[in-house]
Write a structure and sequence with these properties.
It is built from 10 helices and 8 strands. It is of the alpha/beta class and about 260 residues long. The protein has 2 domains: about 150 residues, Rossmann fold, CATH 3.40.50.720; about 90 residues, N-(1-d-carboxylethyl)-l-norvaline Dehydrogenase, domain 2 (Orthogonal Bundle). It has an 8-stranded mixed sheet, sandwiched between helices. Strand 4, helix 3 and strand 5 form a beta-alpha-beta unit. The termini are far apart.
């Protein structure tokens, strides 16, 4: 793949991990933009790039702009992001926004969506992360595929509609699951116990998901709808009405499935 001049618009969790993965593979990044100077400066230093906190100071001669912003921010800042760059490849990283969020004035539209949970504090290995690409022309499709393949062995083309669907599934598999960890941690703190007691259980649950379907792997009182145990748990949650409702709803859903 020829060397392309790449600019990152955004310096959040995803941008940080992806930019560092590119840098680790000796893919040069020309510039980082973030409205927050600390974020822009920190990421730029990590990947040996320039940085700016002003959209009007983003260079206009890059080949690829990877826009890793929150959906609302991307829509709001779109006119400033694309100004003077209408002939460059503009690729957003959203799981929920379609390819055609890019206006007609942008000739080369793209999506570069890694399916993973990212945090700045934890560096991930990109090698096996499913990464989904989409473009409005075959040449840029190939360019995005080659760029993705430089950091991961798991690259697929995916339509906007399919990407929206997989993003929904990911919210259940990751975000909602992690929220359950947070609720468990809250309960344990109330009872004076550490969350670390849960870690072997979490690890085994994750291992089972790799060899069994989640439906087959499901255990617990809700599977058989053991009302005696369920009612005892609900009693323990008497001072947590919101958690009581979550417990009831999830238990019914497990039993029904």
């Amino acid at each position: 793949m020829k060397e392309n001049k790449i600019v990152f618009i955004g310096a959040g969790n995803l941008a940080t991990n992806l930019a560092e993965a590119f840098h680790d593979r000796h893919i040069k990044i020309a510039q980082i933009y973030s409205r927050t100077e600390d974020s822009a400066k920190t990421l730029a230093k990590a990947v040996e790039a320039d940085y700016t906190t002003e959209l009007e100071s983003v260079i206009n001669d890059a080949d690829i702009y990877i826009v890793a912003l929150k959906d609302d921010a991307l829509v709001e800042l779109m006119p400033q992001i694309i100004a003077g760059k209408e002939n460059a490849l503009m690729a957003h990283t959203s799981g929920s926004l379609p390819l055609n969020i890019w206006p007609d004035s942008v000739k080369r539209k793209g999506v570069f969506y890694p399916l993973q949970t990212f945090s700045k504090q934890r560096k991930v290995d990109f090698q096996n992360i499913p990464t989904f690409i989409e473009s409005n022309n075959s040449a840029d499709n190939q360019l995005l595929k080659e760029l993705a393949s430089s950091v991961t062995n798991n690259v697929s083309e995916l339509s906007s509609e399919k990407r929206r669907q997989i993003h929904l599934a990911a919210v259940f598999a990751c975000n909602f699951t992690n929220h359950m960890y947070a609720l468990a941690e809250k309960l344990l703190q109330q009872y004076g116990m550490p969350f670390s007691y849960m870690l072997p259980l979490i690890e085994e649950t994750e291992r089972k998901a790799q060899v069994l379907s989640p439906k087959e792997a499901q255990t617990g009182p809700a599977v058989r709808y053991d009302e005696k145990i369920i009612n005892k748990h609900l009693e323990l949650l008497s001072n947590e009405p919101e958690m009581q409702e979550i417990y009831k709803l999830i238990s019914k859903s497990i039993h029904k499935l």
